[in-house]
Amino acid sequence: MTDTLPARPTGRGTFPDAALNAAATLWFWVTLAGQWMFLYFVAAFCGLSTVSGNFADWNRNPFLPHGCIARDTMGNLAFAGQC
Length: 83
Known about the structure:
By secondary structure, the protein is an all-alpha fold. The protein has helices at 15-52, 73-82. It contains 2 helices and no strands.
């Protein structure tokens, strides 16, 4: 006699399986949307001024209380790396 597990039913899954799949799908799409919104935020506030070299524009962003600090090259580069 061999010890085997019962076969998993085929066809439609159970409610917990469907709920877990729906939650995972929702989580994926919400996370993806959040990542795209964050990318847009960074590109809108930091992208153009960084590419053009006009780092003083970082100070216009109300969410960045200390955007670009004059004569702080290393600090500004570290900030740009995070931005």
